Amino acid sequence: MSENKVILSVRNLKTYFDVTKGIFSPRQIVKAVDDVSFDIMENETFGLVGESGCGKTTLGRTIVKLYEPESGSIIFEGKDIAKMKGKELTAFRKDMQMIFQDPYASLNPRMTVGEIIKEPMIIHNIYDNDKDREDRVVELLKIVGLKPDHIRRYPAEFSGGQRQRVGIARALAVNPKFIVCDEPISALDVSIQAQVVNLLKDIQKEMGLSYLFVAHDLSMVKHISDRIGVMYLGQMVELGPANDVYHRPLHPYTTALLSAIPIPDPDVAKKKQRIVLEGEVPSPINPPKGCPFCTRCPKATERCHKERPVPIEVGTRKVACHLYEK
Ligand code: SF4
């Protein structure tokens, strides 16, 4: 990543869901994303990790406006996505696309691959004739490592990895500037995961794209990301350069997440100390008053149960933990 401009600036973003059952029941609000702020630069890959239910997918979907934020701003190239509606929102969707987790569910089984990739070009009026659209589909199929004659085939005729390549071609069809990759490899075989990640990296270099890469596998996120954000219970607890976060974690939660990554070398694995987190992740309906991690943190003090830590700068990192406050 070179010295680039900010392309996306998220500030104090909250996404809440009302899950109250029945009109006489007490109000229950799930705080899926709770006051999150960060920037993504042009040509950067920002990896977002955390256990399932930490809010990372909701955050990605709020950024592309699939979910309505409760409050906060999402500034993309100077405009607030959070406030966009109607035509302005449709126009913005051309610049920001999404690659979905499940390549089986995200492609319409009744449409050919050609129709699937052409559809966003038609919605956004990219070409005025079908011949140009078809030529572009063939070009995109080659870019993602598929063959031109795949254009007439249906999704069911492809493997999971090939379907995800179709999903990538569809996202690229409108020449976006930014792609939210929502766990794009977690439904794929391990042998295929690296191929898809390398394809995404090559495309980024070629087209100058920025990515928000959502995943629960920290080692894969480290491989693709320039910077990593770690989420826990709707909050960003650590954020910094991928190498620093991966090799020298600061937040106790990041340390625990990293200690759980399997190491292929049995000698190295024997020496590694695994931190087993006790207890369940608290419910986002009723999160702890203080630090979100206080119910499972091996270093928690009395203060941690009362006061929520705010993210502070620690060297190259931003960390939300009382241990680092001076
Ligand atoms: Fe642990 Fe306290 Fe830091 Fe939270 S603030 S991570 S509970 S030490």
Residues in helices, as a percent range: 25-40%
Instruction: Tell me the CATH topology of one domain.
Output: Rossmann fold
Question: Class of one domain in CATH?
Answer: Alpha Beta
Overall mean pLDDT score?
91
Sheet with the most strands: spatial strand order: 6-7-8-3-9-10-12-11
- Described by the principal axes of the CA atoms, the overall outline is globular
Distance between the termini: 31 Å
The helix/strand class is: alpha/beta
Radius of gyration, in Å, reads: 21 Å
Which ligands occur here?
A: iron/sulfur cluster
Low-confidence stretches at least 5 residues in length (pLDDT < 50)?
A: none
The CATH H-level homologous superfamily of one domain: P-loop containing nucleotide triphosphate hydrolases
Largest sheet: 8 strands, mixed
How many helices?
10
Tell me the β content: 15-25%
Tags for this model:
326 residues, globular, 10 helices, Rossmann fold, alpha/beta, single chain, 31% helix, 8-stranded mixed β-sheet, binds iron/sulfur cluster
Structure report:
The chain has ten helices and twelve strands. The protein has 326 residues and is of the alpha/beta class. It has a domain at 6-95 and 176-242: 3-Layer(aba) Sandwich (Rossmann fold). The strands form two sheets. An eight-stranded mixed β-sheet has the order 6-7-8-3-9-10-12-11, sandwiched between helices. Strand 11 (312-314) and strand 12 (317-319) form a beta hairpin. Helix 3 runs parallel beside helix 5 and helix 5 packs parallel to helix 6. The mean pLDDT is 91. Residues 251-252, 291, 293-294, 297, 299-300, 304, 309, 321-323 line the site of iron/sulfur cluster.
